Amino acid sequence: MTDPLASASVLALMEDREGNIWVGTETGGLHILRDQRFRTVGAREGLSSDATTTVVEDKTGTLWVGTNGAGLNALKPGAAGINAGPVKTYSVRNGLLSDVISLWPLRPTATCGWVRRMD
CB–CB of 24/65 below 8 Å? Predict the structure, then answer.
């Protein structure tokens, strides 16, 4: 098994409702560990950036992926754990105050409701 995280700086870590492990990295995108195999979701797969700062799952199963300078991505994992459709990206053009996103869920079961760290 190749380890895509061997030289990555991990910034976010989350286990989803199906037991998959999602790992956000400073420059290598978002990685999913499923069935003892890593897969990568990054800019080539539709994320707005490979600099992923946070990943959380809401009660509908949508993953919210924050980036360092490219806004917030919403993706719905499919049967293989990888995105089942187009990634939706939100940025300052859509009304966000910043494209640098650091999120923490207020409640793990909330559909929305996030706290943004102000640096």
Answer: yes
pTM: predicted TM-score of the whole model, two decimal places: 0.80
Helix H or strand E encompassing 65: strand 63-67
Assigned token pair, 26: 């400073």
Q: 4 is written with which tokens? A: 């895509």
Strand partners, 75: 63
Is residue 47 within 8 Å of residue 55, measured between CB atoms? no
Per-residue confidence (pLDDT) for residue 118, from 0 to 100: 47
DSSP 82: S
pLDDT tens digits for range 86-108:
889 999 999 988 999 886 655 55
Angstrom distances, CA of residue 73 to CA of 7, 13, 29, 61, 79: 24, 16, 12, 14, 19
